[in-house]
Amino acid sequence: MDVRDIKGRLLLSRGTPVGPDHIRIFKIWGIPQVEIAGASDEEAAAAPSPVDPAWLEAARQEAEPLFILTEREHPAISEIFNQAVQYRAARRTLPPPDSLPPEELSAPVKEPDKDFLEKFIDQDIALPEIPSIVIELNEVIADPLSTADQMAQVINKSPSLTALLLKIVNSSFYGLPSRVDRVSLAVTLIGTRELSSLALGISILSIFKSIPSSLLTMRSFLKHSLACGIISRLLAAQKALRQTEQMFTAGLLHDIGRLILFIYFPEEALSSLRRARQTSDRLYLVEKKRLGCHHAQIGKYLLNRWRLPLIIESAVCFHHEPAEAPDPVPAAIVHVADLLVNALGIGTSGERLVPPIDSRAWEVLELSPSCFEVVIHQMLGQLNTLEFLLPEDRP
After folding, report:
1. 168 and 222 share a domain?
2. Could you give phi then psi for residue 98, rounded to 5 degrees?
């Protein structure tokens, strides 16, 4: 039968042989699966083998307490739980124990800081300045008449960014049919705004080096962020949005405010982590109670200060409360991506429990829970090819 996207646009006519280029197009437009006539028995035999029931049961017991805040009857949560159990069982390793440094009994109990965001802004801490290339990229994004050559000229000013972007472009993250050796060609194939958004996210996260080891590792934080960015991009494709790379950047930077807390305010961050463990409350709500703001609001301030596109700023700010966003769809995409990555247990940004889903945001997305299996499969393949972006854990 004909292959069409969710808007009914014809992507491939019935009877056409399916090749690598078609598969790439299906991925871009969010087609989870197609029926292929004449598939061989060998191809059918290549299907993944069933997971050992003992491992499935162990994974189920591991996942159950992590979903205590969710409505398990919700169709999206039900499917996410099933996928989390399958993934954890197939991984065949249990995660390391969730531990924090012991609290000193003699340490005085500090009152919650209700004016933290004002103090943070007024204190004007010595945040690393974003590279000048980010400012130039913002200008290119803002100019609707910008060209591929102009974008390439900006990126080529940074040899390290150029090499990194070409490495990403040539990975399965894009699945291009032939090797790309010039930024200008990459911009032509992928798009000016798309590649510039990717460069923005990578450039910004690269300026932060490490998190205090008493909290968590930078590798774990970035792995969570990267997985969330990839899933945000894939969900945007499922939704047939044009700004898939901007959604990747929003997912990549969604917890940048928490990164600021970990690096520059470790005592406040550790206090919030401990409180969330003690109360089984959501970490962002603990932050809000103890600091008067939460990490997403800190992230909004930073992205606004750095003049990133409004769609990214808004998605980051409202990813815990997507229905409150001026445009709820981008925030809802990051919201669901963050929930899914937490359920799978890929890296961590400090949140231990799987957050509840915003039902209004899920309705706005108009997605089927059946898309999660394909999205997870695609994400894992792309994440594996982008492992080079993750730093090694320091002893």
Report:
1. no
2. -85, 105
